[in-house]
Each structure stands twice: as structure tokens, then as C-alpha cells.
UniProtKB/TrEMBL annotation:
Protein's name according to its UniProt entry: LysR family transcriptional regulator
Keywords for this protein: DNA-binding, Transcription, Transcription regulation
Gene3D superfamilies according to UniProt: 3.40.190.290, Winged helix-like DNA-binding domain superfamily/Winged helix DNA-binding domain (1.10.10.10)
Similarity field: Belongs to the LysR transcriptional regulatory family.
Taxonomic source organism: Psychromarinibacter halotolerans
Taxon lineage: Bacteria, Pseudomonadati, Pseudomonadota, Alphaproteobacteria, Rhodobacterales
């Protein structure tokens, strides 16, 4: 059986993107070349590796078996390169971190800037998505989430708790109806998530405040923050985001507040990759420090 590592690399890209064109974009090669390489690999193993459908390329049973071995080979090659090239102690290569947009906008830039200063040959990418990042398709090397996954072969590490409160602009509060308790929110415009686009139960903030109507909504917490800053109404804001919006004031902080948590999610096999271990340690430590610093500023 004649199998080349480069063909396995292309195979992994097709499996993760579920298309020849997607793999071509990842690898920066022509999709026709990707297709020829997969034909050669299937001839080499003597079995079809993908089932093609209108939805894309899905792994066959034999393809899934090869996927497990190919990922181990990928980790071995990556580890060998890092061991040879990283002897000076600095991190190199590329790492991609997925995160919800609040964390990606207000916390990770500072954390990654420090990581980059200490490791100038490390390329860092932040994937900010208002949904769960798919690690099995290698959308990212590691992901930050607001809840621990209940299923799947993943390793989970709690990073830190964070707090949220109702907030509004001073101008809005100065022109709005009085606010004595949560029942008075019925007389105000409320800003929050689009109800049917809440991808994690931990983000269903307004339900805990007894609010069932959202006057202005977005699937992005950053867009919500800007709506609140523009005087659109009252919404729930991360305490760590408040220092970036000094015109906002907490609303009924003694009556309502939420505590949520961030988790770091990784592939269990990636624990053998020292570069990713060191990046994970830096990200966890940095996020803990940033949340504490910014929340203290917002107190």
C-alpha cells in the first residue's frame, strides 16, 4: 500500500470541509487537484473513503477508520516539527481560537496581543462566531464556550466565572420611565438576543429577568451593546464589556445579576502537542486575569 503523507493531509482537509472546493481553499490548491489526490488515495487503500451527496462529501466507514489514523499522523508530524523547531523556547506556527463574540471582542485581543509579543513567530487567529465552533471539522484548534459540552470526545477545562448586569445609557435613563424594580422593565424597550437564534441555554438571559418581549434584537452580543449605547433601550451587558462603554450605567444591580462561566474545549489527542498545551495555558491564564481586571474597573 503506497500512501503519501501529503495525500493524507488533503484527505483531512476534505473530511473537515466536506467538499473539494472547501479543501482547496484551506490548502490553497485547485479543487480538481484535490479530487485527483483523493482518487489516488482511494486506489492506494483499495476502498472508497467518501460518499458524495448534494450535501457534500461524507466519510464512509473506511474513511472514518482512516480519519482516526490520519489525525494521529498529523499530530505526530506537528509534534516532531515543533520539537525540532521550537528548541529556542518560543512558540511558532499557527493557532486558531474559536470564541463567542463577547469574549472574542473584549477579552481575547488583549490576551492574544501579549501572547504574540512573547512569541513573535506564532500566528494567532481568532474565530468570532455567534454559535458553537465545530472542533471536529477543525474550524479551530481550541474553543472557548459558555457551557461544557455534554457529549463528544473533547477535553473541558473551566476557565473562569464572569458577571452580567442590566445596563442602559445615561441619556436613555434620563428620558425614560422610573425604574424601581424588575416589574418596571415592562415600561421600557428591552434589547437582547433574537429568541430563535439563542444557540446555548446559558445565553437566555432575559428569561431569568422575566422578560418575554425584545424590542430590538441581534444574534451578536456586540451589536446588542452598540444598540444599548445608542440609547435603544435596556439590555444585559457583560461586566467585562462595561469599561469599553463608559456612557452606560448598570440598572437595578442590587435586584438582578447573572453569573456565567467560560470553558476551554480541546481535542483530547491535542494534549500531546506541546505548542497547543502552552497556548492553552496562556489563554486560560490571560482570560482569568482580563476578566478580573475589567470587572474590577466596572465595579
Amino acid at each position: 500500500m503506497d500512501i503519501h503523507w501529503d495525500d493524507l493531509r488533503v484527505f483531512l482537509a476534505v473530511a473537515r470541509s466536506e467538499s473539494l472546493s472547501g479543501a482547496g481553499r484551506l490548502l490553497r490548491i485547485d479543487p480538481a487537484t484535490v479530487g485527483r489526490r483523493m482518487q489516488r488515495l482511494e486506489q492506494g487503500v483499495g476502498a472508497p473513503l467518501f460518499a458524495k451527496s448534494p450535501q457534500g462529501y461524507a466519510l464512509t466507514v473506511d474513511g472514518q477508520r482512516l480519519m482516526d489514523h490520519a489525525e494521529r499522523a498529523e499530530q505526530a508530524v506537528t509534534g516532531a516539527v515543533e520539537e525540532i523547531g521550537g528548541q529556542a523556547g518560543q512558540l511558532t506556527g499557527q493557532v486558531r481560537i474559536g470564541a463567542p463574540d463577547g469574549c472574542a471582542n473584549f477579552l481575547l485581543p488583549q490576551v492574544c496581543a501579549e501572547l504574540s509579543r512573547n512569541n513573535p513567530l506564532l500566528d494567532i487567529q481568532i474565530v468570532a462566531l455567534p454559535r458553537v465552533v465545530n472542533l471536529s471539522k477543525r474550524e479551530a484548534d481550541m474553543a472557548i464556550t459558555v457551557s461544557a459540552p455534554a457529549t463528544g470526545r473533547l477535553t473541558v477545562q473551566k476557565i473562569t466565572d464572569y458577571r452580567l448586569h442590566l445596563a442602559a445609557s445615561a441619556d436613555y435613563l434620563g428620558n425614560g420611565a422610573p425604574l424601581g424594580d424588575l416589574r418596571d422593565l415592562r415600561d421600557h424597550r428591552v434589547i437582547g438576543y433574537i429568541p430563535d437564534m439563542i444557540y446555548d441555554k446559558e445565553l437566555d438571559y432575559l428569561a431569568e429577568a422575566g422578560i418575554d418581549r425584545v424590542a430590538m434584537a441581534s444574534n451578536s452580543v456586540v451589536v446588542q451593546l452598540h444598540m444599548i449605547r445608542q440609547g435603544g433601550g435596556i439590555g444585559i451587558v457583560h461586566d467585562f464589556a462595561l469599561p469599553f462603554a463608559p456612557e452606560l450605567e448598570k440598572v437595578l444591580p442590587d435586584s438582578f445579576g447573572l453569573t456565567r462561566s467560560f470553558y476551554l474545549i480541546r481535542h483530547p489527542d491535542d494534549r500531546r502537542v506541546e505548542r497547543l498545551n502552552r497556548v492553552a495555558e496562556a489563554v486560560v491564564a490571560g482570560l482569568r486575569a482580563e476578566v478580573a481586571r475589567l470587572e474590577d474597573s466596572a465595579a
